[in-house]
Fold:
Amino acid sequence: MKHLEIIAYFKSLNSEDQHHLANHLLEHINATEHSLIAERNSQIAKSGLICPNCQSKHVVGYGKYQNAKRYKCQDCKRTFNSLTGSMAHWIHKKDLLKQYIYFMLQGYSLRKISAELNICLKTSFDWRHKILNSLSQEGDIKLSGVVEADETFFLYSEKGNKNLDGRKARKRGGKAGKKGINKDHVAVLTAYERKSGTFTNSVVCRGRITKKAIEKGLGEKLNKQESILCVDSHKSYEGFAMDNQINVKRIFVRRKEFVIEKIYHIQHVNNIHSNMKYWMFKFHGVSTKYLQNYMNYFTLVKKIGFSIDKAEKAMSILLQHNNVFIKRNNINQQICIT
Structure:
């Protein structure tokens, strides 16, 4: 239901029902920021409270500030609250954050979100990247069992750069300067665990996939002793498996070989790549320096799925991570690959 339809429905109610609904909505709006803090406090209760500045656990209560409980580190003497270092840190209109995340998950453009929430376009852009930056902590993911891995490619983009070096500006949706996979492409490595359905997407290198790039994207996430790695015929995967003593099953698609022993294939990863390319199309090109953020964005959307309480689930995931705050002046300085 669109907001104009909601307004029309509201006008159709009698005066008493209008007052009742308006009061209920105001209570909900006022409770949003408090629920944000409550959700963050529940996450802290699970992981334990640490100082976002020096990582010390010697923390004591230090009163309240703007309705939020305040803490003080006994080691570095810094004060902070439960939202310090999280993606909600320094966001002034926290009461709009939950609705913003809902619109993000619905696939709204930055301009549409800006109009819906009455915030400027730059703020809409900054909030998106502050939120997506909190999804960058994937160190705890461990893939085991039958794990499929394959790469896909996006055209290297310097969208927004006014000082291009070495080439002319390319129109949106352009083509690479040479045929085949080359330095005009960026490789995204996807790994999928069959048992749980967990998958990760990592922007790893420019041009053809290399053994070093596979190590970067998969090395710390793969339980090497308890995994069977299903990959295509690229030699770099074989080299990575040999170096790490991983049981590997290589699929030779050029020989019309799609499944080995009726079990081992990479069709789940191929399906993820197909969905990813279709999903990315609506952004009309993404600068490569932000590409990892959008891979995290896609992962979040797939993780939430078609749940009714999308915003609540996303908020819970986003607030799990510490020290993910990024200043708005540093957003355009992010580096995806080197």
Q: What stands out?
A: The mean pLDDT is 82. Residues 143-286 form a domain with the Nucleotidyltransferase; domain 5 fold (CATH 3.30.420). Residues 100 and 113 are 7 Å apart (CA to CA).
